[in-house]
Amino acid sequence: MFEIPILMVLIPAFPLAGTIVTAVFGKWLKHEAHWPVVVSIVCSCALSLALLSQVIHEAEANPLAVGWESTFELWNWTSVPEAIARPEFAAPADGAAALPERLPFVVNVTMRSDPLTSIMLAVVTFVASLVAIYAVGYMHGDPGYWRFFTYIGLFVFSMTMLVSVSNFVLLYVFWEAVGLCSYLLVGFWYEKPAAIAAGKKAFLVNRVGDFGFALGLFLIWTTYGTLNYHDADGIAGVLGQTRLAASGGYAAGGVATVICLLLMLGACGKSAQFPLHVWLPDAMEGPTPVSALIHAATMVTAGVYMVTRCTPLFVASADAQQVVAIVGATTCALGGVIALTQTDLKRVLAYSTISQLGYMFLALGCGTLVAITAGMFHLLTHAFFKALLFLAAGSVMHAMGGIIDMRRFSGLRKLMPYTHWTFLFGGLALGGVIPFAGFWSKDAILGAVHQRGHDSALYLALYWVGMITAFLTAIYTFRAFFLTFYGPLRVPHESGHHAHESPRTMTVPLMILAAFAFGAGMWLQGPGDLAGLLGHTPSLAYQAVPRAADHGGSHLLVMTISTIFALSGVGIAAYLYLGDDALATRLARLLAPLYWLSYGKFFFDPIYNALFVWPLLVLAKASDLIDTYLIDGLVNLVGSVPPWVGARLRSLQTGMVQFYALAMVWGVVVLIVTLLIWPAIAAGSK
Amino acid sequence: MDEQALLTNYLIVGALLFGIGLVGFFSRRNMIVMFLCAEMMLQGVSVSLVAWGRYHNDWGGQILVIFILTVAACEAAIALAVVLTLFHQSGKLDIAVWQQLREDNQAAFVDRDPSALTPKPEAQWPKLVPAGIEPELDLQEVTHRSHL
């Protein structure tokens, strides 16, 4: 129905329009303030699906040598002629000689669509639609209702732009824009001191990552002389067809490694990877729909998207890839261990998100096409089942009157049957139980890592880390599930006497997501052929990305082991937490040091406080004192001169007419005398 | 009489007028008198303007004086109106009544009480007149009123 360029523009335009309408008229719309945003996001979702189907059709009909992409330039944002001396890698092979001596700095607002972008768009808008509908019920009656939907609309606009721009500068702009939305929504209940602190922490930790990201972009600019993904204005883009098709288009060695590590630092910040993961658990102070949409399904996957997009850069540096894999596996295990002992249901899910994002980075760090598509596959399924789990947790929180501590309630399965069943589906998917979605994607990752492990001890070790974490995942997921929904019925007094199942507008999105958490893995693995479609993305169609041979045997082995691990994890959780929890308490006492480490979240927060926050606070205090006493003192000293002089002259104002007249005459006398004797003085000085 | 001497004489007259006006302006506190003194200074300037005009054979000086006279007439009307208003408010023509425009912490100018300087004569107690004799009237009290 629509041409691809029109779709590319309309998809972000709808949420933007919805945001503006809500921002302007929200105060008057009051309890109807959700309509503009919900309708526009649903429209955007429909258009994204239309775009996806067209992209699938186009990409398969026109399989170019290095993937299929379509770009559409909207306007020129900035243009500086002759901004940089032509770098060595300005063009691949010997094409550089054809370029002028100095290259311009041009940023065009160019929208792109390729399989990677259109899949991201579909996931983002789909999850956002469901979350927005859910939020209509969840946020009902909140005094900031219209503000909430304004932020959500702004976020969806920023996120859709983030995945559909075709330039690193614009990527950075929207990277920051989603960070801003995250900040605003984490601190949404700004009367709560914890929410303010969490928002600030999220923002500041992200600054660390973004600093690295910015440096990475500077280095890309000086190395390649452009920041476009695609070829434009006769200059080969960083991820453009020309460069991908030629050989030797990418810098190797130290430069490549440094670029990748800096980009990875940015991804670590946004995607909450070790050592910058500390902000994500605190971000759970925000409303639960926000946790589901931004801090589980979409924004935190921006780092995964960015690294996937930059695959050709990472392929050029094996060292950087290993770092990505190690960071991923570390985060994965760390998140899994911490999630085992947390008592706050949303915190468990937050650490689980960190852990699952670690899986994705582990996959990206393998560098093979199979692994990268597996990482994206996990991103997709994770978006469905983790959004589901968060929304279900939100439903519990809604019924429990804002209490989310699992020690305060239990046995809710009779009270909230829909939430119970949908949480079970999400839990099975997260735990990796066959045939739920998480099983297929996690298995694809572990299979790909195992394959790299054939000739590398490092990757074999990482494979086992991933496998054991899969086991932990099953345990902590079902620990949370059993503690919440089984055992004797206990309800905190905050919920009053009306602890009940959530309204339709909340349970229906849960059920839709549950269906996806069940079926999405099977469908995308089989008939959906996600890997095949992603292979048409230029970055992934790049021939230097290693193609793995068929891996049937080992994959089957991996599947078997992971199924055994997952099921035994579920079994252990059931054994420990169904019924009497004395056993769990005894186990905690037996492994006291480990329990202590896990419960204390490995003490990252106190360590960071002592290492960074405290010295900076001292420095800030010192600067404040210098400013107050030294600088302000000097300024005030200068400022006190005129009042002092004025105070001395004040006695001249007598209010007597004749005194003023006398002063005038004296003035005239002084003038005349000066006039008379001045020639004499002037003559004398010569 | 040559031109030079003529100029000098007129300038002396002008300067005298100006000087007398200035001294009068400083030394008198009656607003009307002060105004007259200011007029006198103005006329002193006018006289010297006329003299210089004559000396330079330039009508400019005379023309300016005509203007000055006109302006002075207007100004006199305004000044007298102001004086009248002030008089209505305080009942006095003394310029020293109006010193509210001074700084807050500045002490107001107060006339020194001359009686404080000269010692008061001892009180004259009335003498009782013996009964049956008409008291003698004080001639001073009859012919003068003490408050004048």
Annotate the secondary structure layout.
The complex is a heterodimer of chains A (686) and B (148).
Chain A: H1 4-29, H2 34-61, E1 70-85, E2 102-113, H3 115-138, H4 145-164, H5 168-186, H6 193-224, H7 241-245, H8 254-270, H9 279-282, H10 288-297, H11 302-309, H12 311-315, H13 318-339, H14 345-366, H15 369-399, H16 417-431, H17 437-452, H18 457-485, H19 504-525, H20 530-534, H21 538-541, H22 552-577, H23 582-590, H24 592-599, H25 604-639, H26 641-649, H27 657-685
Antiparallel strand pairs in A: 1-2
Helix pairs in contact in A: 1-2, 1-4, 2-3, 2-4, 3-4, 3-10, 3-15, 3-19, 4-5, 5-6, 6-8, 8-11, 8-13, 10-15, 13-14, 13-18, 14-15, 14-17, 14-18, 15-16, 15-17, 15-19, 16-18, 16-19, 17-18, 17-19, 17-22, 18-22
Chain B: H1 3-27, H2 31-56, H3 60-90, H4 114-117, H5 139-143
Helix pairs in contact in B: 1-2, 2-3
Quick recap:
Chain A has 686 residues and is mainly alpha-helical. Chain A has helices at 4-29, 34-61, 115-138, 145-164, 168-186, 193-224, 241-245, 254-270, 279-282, 288-297, 302-309, 311-315, 318-339, 345-366, 369-399, 417-431, 437-452, 457-485, 504-525, 530-534, 538-541, 552-577, 582-590, 592-599, 604-639, 641-649, 657-685, and strands at 70-85, 102-113. The longest helix of chain A has 36 residues, at 604-639.
